[in-house]
Each structure stands twice: as C-alpha cells, then as structure tokens.
Amino acid sequence: MSFTNNSKNKIALIDCNSFYVSCERLFNPKIQNMPVVVLSNNDGCVISRSIEAKKIGIKMGEPYFKVKDLVKKNNVQIFSSNYSLYGDLSRRVMRILKGFSDKIEIYSIDEAFLDLSYVKDDQVKEYGKKIRDLVLKWTGIPTSVGISSTKTLSKIANHIAKKNEEGVIFLKDNIDNTLRNFDIADVWGVGKQLSKLYKKNGIDNAYNLKNISNTWVKKSTNVLGAKTVMELRGTACINLETQETKRKSCCVSRSFGKKVESLEKLRESVTTHCLNAAEKIRTDKQTTRAITVFIRTSPFDKNRKYYSNSITIDLPVATSNSLELVKEAIKGLIKIYRYGYFYQKTGIILSKLNDSCEKEFNLLAPIMENRSHTLMKAIDFTNAKYGRNAISIAQAGVNNSWKMRREHSSKIDTASFDSLPKISV
Fold first, then answer.
1. What pTM was computed for the model?
2. Which of 43, 120, 125, 357 could form a disulfide with 170 if both were Cys (CB 3.0 to 4.6 A apart)?
3. CATH code for the structural domain at 1-16+84-243
4. What are the tens digits of pLDDT across the range 241-261?
5. Is the Cβ–Cβ distance between 292 and 349 less than 8 Å?
6. Which three-class secondary structure state does DSSP give residue 111?
C-alpha cells in the first residue's frame, strides 16, 4: 500500500532542549559541559537531564535515591526544580516564536507548534535555522526545530533534529525511509498500552503503522489512533490550537518537605497556596465563585492512621481578592482539621471561574469590587517587579519549615538583580 504526501502545509515544532537543565546552565556557565539533572518537587525524581547525564545511564523519572551512586561517581550537578525561573524563560521563548508566525500553539512549557505554510519549500529549513538562532541569541536557550506537513510528522522531525548537529530537520522527501527507522513507541500519541498492542500485531515502526488498513485501525484503536495514521500519511487531522482557552479551575497544592501536625502550619500553607491561586486567576482576568480546601496525611505511612478531607465553600460574590479568598479558605480548613495527625499535603482549588468582565447582578458586587481592585493591582505590580511574595500577608508566615524540600536549589530569581551573572572587567 502506498500513500503520497501532497499537502502544502508546513508545521514546525520548536522544542527547547533539556529545558530545565538549559535554564540552570544559563545562569551557571561552569556546568555547560557537565552532566546535569533537575529533580521534581521535594527532590523526588529526575525530570530533566543533560545529554551527558543521559550517556552515563540516568533515566527520566528515576527516583533520586536510586541514582545517588551514579551522581557521586560522575560528579553530576543536581538542582531542585525552580518553576518560577522556568516559567519566566518559557514566556520569553514563546514571545519570540510569536514573531515568526501569527498561528502558534503553545503545546507545553518548552514546546510550540508554528504554521510556516507561507514559507517556500526551498527556504523553510533556513527559516527554521533563523528561529533557532534568534531564540538562542535572545534567551540563551538551545532548541530543536522539526518541520513537516502534519503535527505528528513534525514531532518525528523534531525527534531526529535533537540528534542532528544543525538542530533543524525539514521532513519532506524520503519520509518512508525515516518512518521505517522510527520506533513505534516514539510516535506522538502512541502510549505504552497502544505500543504493546501495535507490537503484538507486528507494527513495530512508524512505517508499518502508516500502511496499516483503515479497517484494522478503527476496529482496534480509537479516534486518536486513526488520526495518527492519517497524519503519518501526510493528511493533517490534528489542527493547531491557536486560541488559548481559559482554565475552568485553578488548583495549587504541594507536599510538605516534612510532615506537619499543627493547625498554625497548615494555615500558613493554605494561605500561601490561596495567594498564589488568586494571583493566577487575576493574571487570566478571571474571578471565582467557589473555593475548595483539602488536606491529607501520607497514604504510604503504615505506622500512622490515614486521614483525608476536603470542603467546598460557595462564595456570595465572584471575586479574585486574595484577602477574601484566604479568609474563606481558613474557615474551611478549621472545619476539616483534626488534631493528632501528621499531614503531608494541603491544597486549594478555585472553581466556577468566569471572566472578570462579566458583571453580576448583585448589589454588593460593585462595592466589593471597587474596594479590592486597586489594592490587588498594586500588590501584583509590586510582586511582578520585585519578586513573588515581595508583598504578602502575615498569615502566610515567614521562613516556613513546611515548604518543599529543595536542598539543591540554585536560588535563581529573574526578578532579582542579585541573581544576574557577574562578569569581571
């Protein structure tokens, strides 16, 4: 069976290389050619690795305690995750990419699809190099660029580009040869279970999947499976999601660095989470009508009794006012708190979100809105300029002992002049 790619589409996938590691290296040039890994919350698992770390056998998702010997033996540089840094650099990268195409889908913190259909075939690879060079020049973040006629094929092109010296691949000719050498498990949209099914039926590479019968695909998989096959054939079935949809709820939660027993410490944690969530929905120009507070102990601690509880509070007026939300969250916490337990995690969820421009028919709404808008705007402006929590409230506490374990934090803050690299003259 033979399929020809006649599509004039040109979709580029720009992916930041080992993004979290690249962010740490940006402010620490000494580790540029050293093996580096970044750990998840509470320094639990490996979530980003440099090429050098991959070569010595450190696997993605590996618990940190399992690789400590490898780390020590190979002088691997370890960093705790710093999501405020990664988020800031991600926003800078995405702003640059928006300058190359008005049709962009921000797929994740370190990936974006661009529609480059307006670029001529003989110029598209050079255009990809320009994208890569400008991102590197303006942010210091290295990227790989894969370009092809569909999102699935551009994912494959990007996978190859990461191992290519130029860092840019335009997958247009001899596609079948590429697909023959591309493992089925690495195809975008093919998870572990689907990969097992394919291999069981002799489909062990992307070329075999491309040429499988439509009847078998529809019978054995789902709609996404059928779309993947069509995309491998060069027919675009997965559209670019260029419109950013606003969130329907906002959850902020963290496991503690060490277990917490007192209500006072839990109150500090819930307050901090509430402040962060309120800031997030204000950034998206949203308000909330309901807040959920939850707490739990560790389900894996066999020496202590397990306890988990939550409470949802409906608000009389939609708001994004941090002070109002904290007040309601603390009321909820007090109702579900039980003395004598060692808590591992707290969190809050803001739900029933609406655009802040949607006015409610409520006599109290205008009064409350006028009181809070100016204050919240001033707090957000100050925190954006001088760093998160430059202005906070007393209930959030200071130097919280319950915070995430971050023993290997680089403590880099892009809102702080103290974090800027120092150069000697």
1. 0.78
2. 125
3. 3.30.70.270
4. 887 777 889 999 888 878 888
5. yes
6. strand
Q: Using the 8-state DSSP alphabet, how is residue 36 labeled?
A: E
Alpha carbon separation from 107 to 94, 113, 309 (Å, rounded): 10, 7, 34
Instruction: Look at residue 167 and tell me whether its pLDDT is greater than 60.
Output: yes
The answer to whether the CB of 89 falls within 8 A of the CB of 139 is yes
Instruction: Please check whether residue 307 is in contact with residue 341, taking contact to mean a CB–CB distance below 8 angstroms.
Output: yes
pLDDT above 60 for 226: yes
Q: What is the DSSP letter of 404?
A: P
Burial of 62 (0-12, 13-18, 19+ CB in 10 A): middle
Return the number of other C-beta atoms located less than 10 Å from residue 55's C-beta. 11
- Looking at residue 39, the DSSP 8-state letter turns out to be E
Amino acid at 191: G
- Which residue ranges make up each domain of the chain? 1-16+84-243, 250-396
- Alpha carbon of residue 280 to chain centroid: 15
Query: What does the alpha-carbon distance between residue 370 and residue 126 come to, in Å, rounded to a whole number?
Result: 53
* CATH class for the region spanning 250-396: alpha beta
